[in-house]
Amino acid sequence: MLMRPWPASAIGTASFEGADERLNRIKRVFIKTQRDHMLDPQQQDSMIKKWPPSEVLVIDTDHSPFFSAPEQLFNLIVKSL
């Protein structure tokens, strides 16, 4: 099995308060997946709001674009560099 179930509720309780200020100097990119059944768009938006990334990119795939659209994912990652 390549992917395993995990408690998605952990995302909702994650806290980034008091995070080291050095973390804010690191570019973070969030890749939002449009057809994700693991994390719906509202959950992804909540994650983005909790710890805003430097950039949000959108891909029209399921939860695993590295399997379903690897070339498209690669192009997004390269674009963000």
Radius of gyration: 14 Å
Number of strands: 2
Round the mean pLDDT to the nearest integer and report it. 85
- pLDDT < 50 runs, ≥5 residues: none
Shape: globular
Main sheet: strands, sense, barrel: 2 strands, parallel
Tell me the fraction of residues in β-strands, as a range. 5-15%
GO molecular function, one term: methyl salicylate esterase activity
Organism: Aegilops tauschii subsp. strangulata (Goatgrass)
GO biological process, one term: jasmonic acid metabolic process
Protein name: AB hydrolase-1 domain-containing protein
Which features would summarize this protein structure in a list?
81 residues; alpha+beta; 12% strand; AB_hydrolase_fold; methyl jasmonate esterase activity; AB hydrolase-1 domain-containing protein
Structure description:
By secondary structure, the protein is an alpha+beta fold. The chain has a domain at 25-80. It is built from 4 helices and 2 strands. It has a two-stranded parallel sheet with strand order 1-2. β1, α2 (41-50) and β2 (55-59) form a beta-alpha-beta unit. The longest helix is centred in the C-terminal third of the chain and has 11 residues, at 70-80. The radius of gyration is 14 Å and the shape is globular. It starts with 8 loop residues before the first helix and ends with a helix.
Helices and strands in order:
Layout: H1 9-13, E1 29-33, H2 41-50, E2 55-59, H3 65-68, H4 70-80
Parallel strand pairs: 1-2
